[in-house]
Amino acid sequence: MSVAERLRARTPTRRWVGLGVAAAGWFAAYELNRPLWDWLLFDVVGLDPDSRLGSGVHFFFYDSVKIALLLVGIIFVVTVLRSFMSVERTRALLGGKREGVGNVMAAGLGVITPFCSCSAVPAFIGFVAAGVPLGVTMSFLIASPLINEVAIALLFGMFGIGPTLMYVGAGLTIAIIAGLVLGRLKVERWVEPFVFETRLGGQLIDSTLGLSWDDRIQIGIEEVGTILRKIWPYLLVGIGLGAAIHGWAPEDFFTSYAGVSNPFAVLIAVLIGIPLYSNAAGIMPLVQALHDKGLPMGTLLAFMMAVVALSLPELILLRRVLRPQLIATFVGVVTLGIIAVGYLFNAVIGV
Amino acid sequence: MKIKVLGPGCANCVNLERVTREAVATMGLDAQIEKVTDFATIVGYGVMSTPALVVDEKVVLSGRVPTAAAVRELLESLAS
Predict the structure, then answer these.
(1) Which of B3, B5, B13, B31 is catalytic?
(2) How far is it, in rounded angstroms, from Cα A23 to Cα A29?
(3) A317-337, pLDDT tens digit by residue?
(4) B10 given a catalytic annotation
(5) If residue B5 lies in a helix (H) or strand (E), which one and from where to where?
(6) pTM above 0.90, yes or no
(7) Which of A56, A230, A242, A305 is the most buried (most CB within 10 A)?
(8) Domain B2-79 class?
(9) Nearest-CA distance from B38 to chain A in Å?
């Protein structure tokens, strides 16, 4: 990667100049994306912008590049910022907090703490062993995948700041309330007993302590590569489906089934979304195409949240520490929250 | 030198084991590398973000996969 080479600078000046050049290049590419494809597909290749083929193909290329640029930019910035936080620091902040305040903090920290769902189990044990209440721990575990930077990047790029804030606000609310509810239900009896018996040994190592700016930039670049390698198949399928819907689906096909007139649309969208194992990158192009076809934002956000919030691999991992009853309750409470948010948004903002 | 790679077996844990073996091989270190997947043991080391690297029962790194070169630097500072 040439950008990586350029950024692997040794002196502070070269590092900041490298970052500045990369940022300028990013903005230029983002601005030139539409004119480039307009010119290439319509003027050079001679496709008709108003034909189905023309608009579908244009959507595919323009969207692929735009989404790739947004992902690279936002994942990099978010990862570098997040390298100042760590799960260890989050636990220290949450230790000894009451429910309520604790849930609010846990949901917020869930968004900004660098966290991979493969660490869900050690983090869960670590939190509980340190005396963080179960409901507060759950708020953290719900918020972390539900509000993710990939979804924020794509929502912002496709729909602007309004729906992005709605999504973040809704995600935080769901995580806080679901954590409070799970705390009230006294679900401790459904946690595998070894969790409470585990003693924290060793010295606590802060995973992000002592990083230099070069390290943080390096981590950011690596994270962009890791995420893109992981999500590109989902992304291409999503954009392909989006382009097909964009160009070929009849105008009223989706609205007649899942539009505002169908009271069960949100419910069905969420139930379809839960078992779908994709990530925000694969879902957002689809969401955008469906929104263009007149589906309401609330239904679409609920669908996307259902896809990203509850993933089978994470639930299987959590089974190591949680009894099936608690996993079922967890899924149930989060699902209800997402459905409620979908209906609320549809009622407040409509299409 | 006893090296343990802590992690439940996700992609990152496999990567950490790979770069660690690479680093050990290039250094010609006499080290045993062991994988630890048991969650109670992992948390017993105080680790909450996997993967993590334990050298002679001391956690030296957690929560990310460094490059083989970075692991080599780390092991060199510990070996001396």
Answers:
(1) B13
(2) 10
(3) 888 889 999 999 999 999 999
(4) yes
(5) strand B2-6
(6) no
(7) A305
(8) alpha beta
(9) 10
